Amino acid sequence: xxxxxxxxxxxxxxxxxxxxxxxxxxxxxxxxxxxxxxxxxxxxxxxxxxxxxxxxxxxxxxxxxxxxxxxxxxxxxxxxxxxxxxxxxxxxxxxxxxxxxxxxxxxxxxxxxxxxxxxxxxxxxxxxxxxxxxxxxxxxxxxxxxxxxxxxxxxxxxxxxxxxxxxxxxxxxxxxxxxxxxxxxxxxxxxxxxxxxxxxxxxxxxxxxxxxxxxxxxxxxxxxxxxxxxxxxxxxxxxxxxxxxxxxxxxxxxxxxxxxxxxxxxxxxxxxxxxxxxxxxxxxxxxxxxxxxxxxxxxxxxxxxxxxxxxxxxxxxxxxxxxxxxxxxxxxxxxxxxxxxxxxx
Length: 345
Ligand code: NAD
Ligand code: UDP
Description:
Structural class: alpha/beta
Radius of gyration: 20 Å
InterPro entries: Epimerase_deHydtase (IPR001509), NAD(P)-bd_dom_sf (IPR036291), UXS-like (IPR044516)
Number of strands: 15
Bound molecules: nicotinamide-adenine-dinucleotide, uridine-5'-diphosphate
Shape: globular
Keywords: Decarboxylase, Glycoprotein, Golgi apparatus, Lyase, Membrane, NAD, Signal-anchor, Transmembrane, Transmembrane helix
Strand order of the largest sheet: 5-4-3-6-7-8-13
Cofactor: NAD(+)
Subcellular location: Golgi apparatus membrane; Golgi apparatus, Golgi stack membrane
Organism: Sinorhizobium saheli
CATH superfamily of the domain at 25-204 and 239-266 and 298-319: NAD(P)-binding Rossmann-like Domain
Distance between the termini: 21 Å
């Protein structure tokens, strides 16, 4: 399926008309901003498999063409190279906003662009949703809670965020995006859905993503030192990607009265040192574990309270850490044998 550019360079029209959509029994026209990224590519695949017409919009800053290349087999998939910081127009029924680098090393590489993406990007997509009457989903984050004083984190907790530290471009950007989503909902009646995602991992992460699970697995497979930042006693709760995407779909299908924000994550809580030990065991690696300085403002502990997701969506994760790690290790082993863990394309 191809896209032709309409009169302005930021407006796109689909070649299909509604008759064709009906004939193909396509249910919805769905825009996935950030669709070439780790979570976005999984989401696009699930939506395509369910029979939807999916447009992936991405600036390929951290997304990879190889993540979405296999999706071209679906005749209902299309790709637009575009930065959400620029306005856009497209006929659409549902929008997922996943566009934003998620790894601290990536979002801190150009923090001003990260804030622009979080805030101006969200504004542009909300204006699109308001214009087209589309339902819109925001990939918010557990970073809303910063270095939390409440444990586990519940949605009603307002968080403990440093507003000018190195993580602020992301944390405050995502907080402002939540503000915009609720103001569009209150002022313009836009149908919004906000999920707060806790650390998620799995196949299609970049080998150079920089987040802890991919770092540890790649280091273990290469026999390189496994780098624990700080003492390794800080905790995270790791959710396997398939569970997370299942949560996204349930949130999007929920009644308009359910806006969120809702936590999505696996409540199993692990110290980073424990994660390193599990990766060493599962890979059979001889890597040494070494310690490096803890980055500024690194949250000390994190675990989602998922009572709201269980009660409202009937959602809870099903994949245990060891099982999800094993599948992720197989993915990176495949990459290693195909090449030397290349990072582009
Ligand atoms: P990712 O970096 O793999 O994917 C982000 C995608 O957005 C990439 O394809 C990138 O090229 C694209 N992108 C970035 N800036 C853009 C822009 N200005 N315009 C268009 N496209 C742009 O990250 P991910 O792990 O897949 O995360 C997806 C979303 O989920 C992000 O919004 C992130 O903040 C959120 N999230 C993820 C996690 C997690 O653990 N994976 C946790 C909390 C929140
Ligand atoms: N971390 C680590 N070694 C690495 C990468 C990360 O010890 O190679 C730590 C990091 O300091 C943090 C935790 O692992 O305490 C999770 O980091 P990640 O970047 O994956 O996510 P976030 O900090 O955003 O939750």
